[in-house]
Amino acid sequence: MEIAESGNPVVNPWMVINKNIEKYQNPSIGRSIWQITNTFIPYISVWVLTVNRLSVSYWLTAFLIFLSAGFLVRLFIIFHDCGHGSYFKSPRTNRFVGMFFGILAFTPYDKWHNQHQRHHGTVGNQDKRGVGDVWTITKEEYQASSKWERIKYRVYRNPFIMFGIGSLYVFLIQNRLTRKDMSKKERLNVYFTNAVLVLIFIVMSMAIGFGTFLVIQLSILYIAAISGLWLFYLQHQYENVSWFRNNNWNYRTVALEGSSFVKFPKLLQWFSGNIGFHHIHHLNARIPNYFLSKCYRENTVFKEVKPVTFVMSLRSLKLRLWDEQIQKMVSFGGRN
User: Fold this and answer.
1) CB-hemisphere CA count at 13 Å for 170?
2) Predicted pLDDT of residue 13
3) 3-state SS, residue 158
4) Sheet with strand 137-138: strands edge to edge
5) CA within 20 to 30 Å of 271's CA: 8, 11, 140, 252, which one?
6) Are 201 and 213 in contact (CB under 8 A)?
7) Phi-psi domain of 249 (left: phi exceeds 0; alpha: psi -120 through 50; beta: other)
8) Which residues does 193 contact at the CB level (< 8 Å), separation at least 6?
9) Element holding 138 (H helix, E strand)
10) Cβ atoms 185, 240 nearer than 8 A
């Protein structure tokens, strides 16, 4: 332990913070089961109701599809927590529930969580970009790029492409594919997920018709995918974000300075599974989503992080490059 000149031990503030939030990382079996109940059952119920009301009113159908998409986002948060081992004490239960909800979200459990764990270990690190994050280059890198590379980057960072097309690409295509660098376990999980999805398509098509199932399922998935990608974008792409070179990077600093606190209205906070408290999640990923709000209220250090509001989230769409000179995200024109 380090000793100050006064002779008293120097207290590491991070040790205090970590100790204070450890009590939130123990999952509650009752809270977990209740959250699954109030998310999965409504999702299936609204899905069935959508089929029954399809011929009654297009406006009602549209509302029900949006509602189903909200529950699907919430199911994805549970899937996300299971991968961190934070939802149940039992690894086997986490895996079973996570794989099940991953299938409903068109996402293979092992492939996604392998990339996500690497994301937690590299987020905000300029020297380790490219895995599980939004493609971001520096202003200097952009200026040194060829015309073709600039065009590709501009297309990628266009909001209509990123959210409108990218969301479908990720959940319908990218999640279906394996890569050479994947483990056997990851590849088998991708194949298993794809096989179950094909089975679901066959059974549901026989039950309600292929066209009906396709329209409803893809509509729900598309809205949920756009919402989920938007949430993921805001977690590390915002006005006051900080990035670091590898020698200055540590997960504690990047949690509070490189991960956002998105302030949602209560209803959206519920549907998004408290994912807006992302700074706390990156500091301790073992805290289940239903304890994040409590952790925020009871620890003043997290309230020092400036919240990202709806207006600020819209403004962040114009920020495309990291300017190392001023340590800010800027637009293609160099403005922040």
Assistant:
1) 24
2) 57
3) coil
4) 137-138, 321-323, 328-330
5) 252
6) yes
7) beta
8) 99, 102, 103, 106, 107, 108, 109, 175
9) strand 137-138
10) no
Neighbouring residues of 75: CB distance < 8 A, sequence distance ≥ 6 = 39, 40, 43, 101, 104, 105
Backbone angles phi, psi at 44, to 5 degrees: -65, -40
The full DSSP string for 229-266 is HHHHHHHH-STT---B-GGG--HHHHHHHSS-BB---H
Residue 258 near residue 241, CB atoms below 8 Å: yes
Q: Determine whether 250 is exposed, middle or buried from the number of CB atoms within 10 Å of its CB (0-12, 13-18, 19+).
A: exposed
What is the C-alpha radius of gyration for the chain, rounded to an integer number of angstroms?
A: 21
Straight-line distance from the first to the last Cα atom of the chain, in angstroms, rounded to the nearest whole number: 42
Task: Kindly state the tokens that stand for 156.
Answer: 């990628």
Q: How far apart are CA 177 and CA 171, in angstroms?
A: 10
Q: What is the dihedral of CA 246, 252, 258, 260, to 10 degrees?
A: 160
Residue with tokens 């971001």: 136
Angle, helix 29-53 to helix 58-83, in steps of 10 degrees = 150
Inter-axis angle of helices 210-236 and 58-83, nearest 10:
50
Cα(207)–Cα(205) distance, rounded to whole angstroms? 5
Mean pLDDT of successive 10-residue stretches along the chain, which has 336 residues: 43 64 93 98 96 84 96 98 97 97 97 94 90 90 95 95 94 95 95 98 95 95 96 91 92 89 92 95 95 93 87 88 93 80
- Give Cα 173 to chain centroid, integer Å: 18
Tokens of 96: 């079973």
Cα distances (angstroms) measured from residue 190 to each of 21, 95, 174, 216, 224: 35, 14, 11, 24, 21
What is the rounded CA–CA span in Å between residue 296 and residue 264? 14
The encoded tokens of residue 211 equal 């066209």
Sign of CA dihedral 264, 62, 41, 99: negative
Give the residue carrying structure tokens 């991953």: 102
